[in-house]
Amino acid sequence: MSAIARVFDRCRDEKRAAFIPFLTAGDPDLRKTADLMQAFVDGGADIIELGVPFSDPVADGPVIQEASQRALSSGTTLSAILRLVARQRDRLGVPIVLFTYFNPIHARGVENFAEQAAASGVDAVLCVDLPPDEATEDVVPMLRKQGLDTVFLVAPTSDKQRIKTVNAMSSGFVYYVSRTGVTGARRELPKELIREVKKLRRRIDLPLAVGFGISTPEQVEQVARVAEGVVVGSALVKLIGDHAEAPDLAKKVESKIRELVTPLGR
């Protein structure tokens, strides 16, 4: 059983959803990223999504796009991120999902990437722009060979065949994009979200985590009623960007995490 599977088993025993915060590695720099990952854990994170900055993040809204640019400007590379994970993983004690686009993986070579990611302590890979049906022959087998979970996305527009493929190709959990478009905090969740998640739950065997647009404790509570995991990204990335130079940045982030996990009974 993978570390991620164990997290969801524990959360099920505790009758709550898992909390999965996201941050962009290297924003504002990798040293602070290490502090922020610890703040996530201290605040109550169950799993951390660590974003690999990319020059053309087509699925991300302005907040994460700007964070990616700041991270790239500070010299952040995939190699440096993997070294960071290697230093932090055991001390943090929670699984790490590497959230990336396919280009950095392709440039390194899938087999090399899989070996290096696993050696660093990464637990899963979510490749946002890689369709699951294009990953069946090489990407998924190579990642699984190294003991890495493979997380794929489903969206409100996904048809039955795509959902079936995602269910077959994923391990650890499935990530449901709560709305079409790019990432970004929203004042209200889509009215049809709860109904759609309940319907999708009947077709997905793995735990289902919901993200994109979730930014308040009230929204966390809403999603946690129907999903096994709740992902918060842009709201945290904005907080980090707004207070990047503050000496108490990590404390601010830890406090925000505590606020967001309150409805989960953490």
Could you please describe the fold and organization of this structure?
The chain has a single domain (3-264), classed as Alpha-Beta Barrel (TIM Barrel), CATH 3.20.20. It has helices spanning 3-13, 30-43, 62-73, 78-92, 102-108, 110-120, 139-145, 160-169, 193-201, 217-224, 234-242, 249-261; strands at residues 18-24, 48-51, 96-100, 124-127, 149-151, 153-154, 174-177, 208-211, 229-232. Helix content is 47%, strand content 14%.
Strand order, largest beta sheet: 5-4-3-2-1-9-8-7-6
Q: In which range does the helix fraction lie?
A: 40-55%
Strand tally:
9
Which word captures the global form? Answer: globular
SSE order: HEHEHHEHHEHEEHEHEHEHH
Domain count: the total is: 1
Classified by CATH, the class is Alpha Beta
The CATH homologous superfamily corresponds to Aldolase class I
Separation of the first and last Cα atoms: 24 Å
Instruction: Give average pLDDT, whole number.
Output: 92
